[in-house]
Amino acid sequence: MSGTAPSAAAGTAAAAAGDELSLTTRLADRREVSAGTRAYSIGFEDGRFYANGWHITGEMGGVWTPPMKMVDGVWFGLDDQWVGPATKFTSGWGYTRYDLPDTAGLKVARTDFVPDGVRGALFGLTVTNPGAARTAKLSVDAHSELMGQYPWGFSGVTPNASDNLPDTGTYDGRDLVFTDDGALPGAPTHHYAALVGTSATPTSGAIGDQYYGPQPGHRCTGTEPGAPADPKPSACDDGPFGKGTGGRLTYSLDLPAGGSKTIWLAVAGSDQGLTSARGELAKALADPDAALAAKKAERRALSQMTQLSLPGDPLVQQAVEWGKQNMADLTQTATNLQVRWTNQGKQFPPPSGTVDKATWIGAGYPDYPWIFGTDAEYTAFAAVSVGQFEAIKGHLRALQQISDILNNRSGVVTHEVVSDGSIWFGHDSRT
User: pTM score > 0.85 for this model?
Assistant: First the structure.
């Protein structure tokens, strides 16, 4: 994630500079996260998006707005040459950055971050022109995957991730628009929507599931060598449950001699339909530079909570500093949780009640970003010790509200709750 510190024994070219850490080796094997309170993006440190995770095989990465996934990934190209993979990855407090190889005679870098309170992620491609003034063609590919964080793909889970509905894609003259309307077997009707776009008007746009950037779109079954559970995730671009589509946006960039330009691409969406998704895209693109500055300031302020000095063990001191950022990256909010006892995936009954809003500290990306009871016992000590009081209070309130609905105020605390309200463990009939 954006706050993951490398081990001193990792044998990498790691460099620390205050609020940043950098790596240059095995980037295609290392996962990264940029996260906000309403969305997160999970990719790899070479700047690519490979199949990731096992709860929904290969689908736990990409860009999410809990409880819904939006896209598998995004990719950039210049003058018909794909940008990347990255030569250096930098993890910052509240953002990630990629040093990318020169492409089409231009110098390129990328910065990703997720504004808090916005259901969308931002990807900033900075293009520097070292030569004479010129115009360059910018291409952006995105591959959609609209689906919920639940149901999962385990055998016996009903409904199942294999029931995932196909996405529909359109180009509206400005943005790529992806929708998924329907119902899984035995589940209520959903209206998922995601948009991909910038503040500029494209010169063209197209839709098709072949748009996967420089990646071939290879689908792994989950059992073959190189499948998502394998140590080499870069062998797979999609998992067995993917039914997304894709699209391409093309722009014309006027680049002055010796000048730089940053193009902010947003991926935003909503599980409440297309109108809501359009509003989230507008919020994400309102002022990305100011939003990034605000994010950095928020994370610097967070770092000032609980100052620890360990002159004899600076690595532990550094780990505590980055731990603060890790917990902030894992702090999420979702609304309209439909509290439903799935009995470890064996059923999908009507909800017992609704929690209007929940805030929590997730257990870990990519496969455990939702709400846990036992994990919160441990997280509470860490959160209180570094001054992150509101996040852990929100987590405990969420557990109380969900547990009271699920267990009729018996006092039994639920353990594993997905961000849509589906509960895997924690019913008092299982104690």
Answer: yes
